[in-house]
Amino acid sequence: MHEMALAEGILRIIEDQAAASGFERVRRVRVEVGQLAGVEVEALRFSFDAVMSNSVADSAVLEIVDTPGQGWCLDCGTTVGIAALYDACPLCGGYQVHATGGMEMRVLDLEVDARAEAPGRPG
Question: How far apart are CA 50 and CA 44, in angstroms?
């Protein structure tokens, strides 16, 4: 299941950001997943919960932002929406459609709790 590896990659991004920015806890993680990315969203959700356990993102909410598939039809010279790679152009029926969008998966942003300063120490 490659979704487990994807969740582990998300955790590495979170841990790197926690070290760099000094936040204490992650409440929400927004991830963009393209329709053509080959990611099973429910498997990613399951993997995310398992991987984030006992980390800075324990109990964080995973918010998925879906990005539709998009392609450029070489036959009719038009940008079209596509549901799967190698689909025919919905306008002309041609199979010369080059995918141009909806293949990405990336962490968009994190909602975090800032680390509290120790009493008596300057911020």
Answer: 10
